[in-house]
Amino acid sequence: MRDDESGSIEQQEANTYETLENLIYLLKEDYNLVITHGNGPQVGNILMRNDAGEQVYGINQMPLDVCVADSQGGIGYMIERMLRNVMNKHHIDKKIVTIVTMVCVDPDDPAFSNPSKRIGKTYSKEEANQLKEMKGWEFKPTIKKEGYFRRVVASPEPLSVINCELIKELVSKETVVIAVGGGGIPVYYDQNGDLRTVDAVVDKDLASAVLAYQIGADEFYILTDVSFIYKDYGLPTQEKLEFLDYADTKRYLEMGTFAEGTMAPKIKAALHFIENGGNKSVITEAKKLEDRSYGSKITMQYD
Hints:
Elements: H1 9-21, H2 24-28, E1 34-35, H3 40-57, H4 64-89, E2 96-98, E3 102-104, E4 117-124, H5 125-135, E5 138-141, E6 148-153, E7 160-161, H6 164-172, E8 176-178, E9 185-189, E10 195-197, H7 204-214, E11 219-224, E12 229-231, E13 239-241, E14 243-245, H8 246-254, H9 263-275, E15 280-285, E16 296-299
């Protein structure tokens, strides 16, 4: 979804198709692909439909983990169908599969003691207090609307991706895999070895990096709305950073060079991939992907 759009299915499908057109050259160059995606606006809408269904019709709300799974299925289906159409246009014959993906987290992760990820709709102070009493939800003030509140949940660090071995096997057989949508569904194993869920969301970029190094990927691409990483983005001191090694990127990150809510999580994910054996991370616009002169490249050492 684009910032100036209502998010209709027609808009989402057109945006998806346009982005996937830019990946065709990778398939023509015999890359094996795993595609991951975010779900911020979509899962927020699912949560608001949850609220409306409960208030108007008395329909039981589904928990956050099921809402994330719903968004994975819907967005994954959209990507898969649009990619099949794009490949048909270019006469490319490849198998594609979408996997609803769980990601293991630590239930004792420090993030659970300080929930900070805002999700769902905006509530008045009175509504937020009622929901906290009824459901045990935590709330924090909204960023853009003074006097109102949004529910907050933890964002624990992803430790491993369930079914990563299967994903690796599928990719080795030249299947395009769509996985880890929205950062994956956070789960953990209890003392009996059973999978349990938590009210949390996982950073999509970091979860994608974990999957990338678990399957032994050579390259990790984050497609965003800027062509390059910039030092001091939007300030008079703005500077394009095109070729970076690990040490310089880490230093810039620790200096606070990158905005915490936008570029910093992507930089952290790119570094995480390199730290765990990846060869190269690239951050760029999808439409600039084929032009090798575009995009910021992060490697362990300079080329």
